[in-house]
Amino acid sequence: MTRAPGGQRRYAVPDMDWIGFLLRLRTTHMPIGQMQVFARLRREGNATVPERRQMLETHLAEVQASIKQMQQSAEVLQVKIEHYRMLERSVLQTSNPDERNTHASKPL
User: What is the pLDDT of residue 105?
Assistant: First the structure.
């Protein structure tokens, strides 16, 4: 990394790629401590490639498990939303016209 005359950092493409990768790890909720270990291993060179691969494989498994849990939660939410839609239809069908107008005019 170099600096501009005004002192601003100038990043090369590989630096930007590395930063982009770290940001991607962060969006997958990799803990900062693990990211620091990964960065240290990267600085140590190619001898640490197996460790880095293993770290990424472990993290990927955690991400995939999290995605599965989120998908299951989304499915439960969809079922619950449909349940409330049916309740709303039932309430509207059983209420008399005067009650429906009263409910419709209430502010949210």
Answer: 54
Angle (CA) 14 47 65, round 5°: 75
Task: Calculate the average pLDDT of the chain.
Answer: 90
Please give the CATH architecture assigned to the domain spanning 2-105: Orthogonal Bundle (1.10)
Q: What is the rounded distance in angstroms from the CA atom of residue 26 to the CA atom of residue 20?
A: 10
Residue burial 85-102, b: 16+ Cβ < 10 Å; e: rest:
eeeeeeeeeeeeeeeeee
Over residues 75-104, the pLDDT tens digits come to: 999 999 999 999 999 988 887 665 555 555
Residue in the block written with tokens 């009650």: 99
> Which of these, 12, 21, 54, 57, lies nearest to 39 by C-alpha position?
21
CA atoms within 13 A on the CB side of 67: 8
pTM of the model: 0.71
Tokens (6 digits) for 88: 């709303």
